[in-house]
Design a protein that fits this description.
The structure is a single chain. It contains nine helices and nine strands. The protein is of the alpha+beta class. It has a six-stranded antiparallel beta sheet with strand order 6-5-4-9-8-7, with helices on both faces. A three-stranded antiparallel beta sheet has the order 1-3-2. The relative contact order is 0.11.
Length: 255
């Protein structure tokens, strides 16, 4: 091992090869789950021989798989880790979501970006007779959800454009945003006000407000959703600081 490889371990207690391996997996996840060696080298800044050695190890362990076209894809062994991680996230998020329901009166959700899709990992129902129910594990496109907007607004614009290029911006309702330029404009508004709104864009008659969970690498967002008639501007104004504080507390728990 060279002195350069020893330095990070001595400085931080980290194992450099493990750091690099997980960085490659995260890079591939951000790129939609499929990349070639040259793309990985360009994205990571690591030498091609180093990339090749790490990739072959990940393939041998089942965390990557090589396709016939010589591209590498995220392997099935990651599914088990992801499912376990999602269950733990749900456990940690539950008290924060329950408190939001108690304070606001509407259903609360936790969602994360998984590849190019949003997956709901935790949900607490409102106690109202008419309430929103979101199935944990449900996958949706980020373009039609408040949680998707909140998460993508915190990402580098080039990453957002890559996701949108790989995503069919299907119109689920009459208010769904289907133009990439319009969506990017709305993300700029989300960055300025620090929360996102879904105006019945995924399901007609349902309004949702969401904020990103800060400083957490698996990109997360928390939201409050309910019937449009109850999700007034006044309720959203009251919900945003509560969501923001809940997100901070969850981030602290996860840290």
């Amino acid at each position: 091992m060279s002195e350069n490889e020893k330095a990070p371990k001595a400085r931080t207690g980290a194992v450099q090869s493990i750091e690099r391996a997980f960085a490659l997996l995260e890079t591939m996840a951000d790129a939609g789950g499929t990349m070639g060696l040259s793309q990985l080298a360009a994205a990571s800044g690591l030498p091609l021989p180093t990339i090749h050695r790490l990739v072959r190890t990940l393939v041998d362990l089942g965390y990557l798989r090589q396709e016939a076209n010589r591209q590498y894809v995220l392997g099935p062994k990651l599914i088990r880790l992801g499912e376990s991680s999602s269950r733990m996230l749900s456990t940690w998020a539950r008290p924060h979501l329950t408190r939001l329901v108690d304070e606001v009166g509407e259903s609360a959700n936790l969602a994360m970006l998984d590849g190019d899709q949003i997956v709901y990992v935790a949900h607490t129902e409102s106690r109202q007779s008419m309430r929103m129910f979101t199935e944990v594990g449900r996958r949706v496109s980020p373009h039609c959800t408040a949680v998707g907007k909140a998460i993508l607004a915190d990402m580098v614009p080039d990453q957002v454009r890559d996701i949108l290029r790989r995503t069919d911006m299907v119109p689920y309702t009459s208010t769904t945003i289907t133009s990439r330029d319009d969506y990017l404009d709305q993300l700029e508004q989300v960055r300025e006000r620090r929360y996102a709104i879904d105006e019945g864009e995924q399901e007609a008659g349902v309004r949702c407000v969401a904020v990103a969970v800060p400083d957490y690498a698996p990109r997360l967002a928390m939201s409050i959703s309910g019937p449009t008639g109850r999700m007034s501007d006044e309720l959203i104004e009251r919900a945003v600081p509560l969501l923001t504080e809940a997100g901070k507390q969850l981030a602290a728990d996860l840290a």
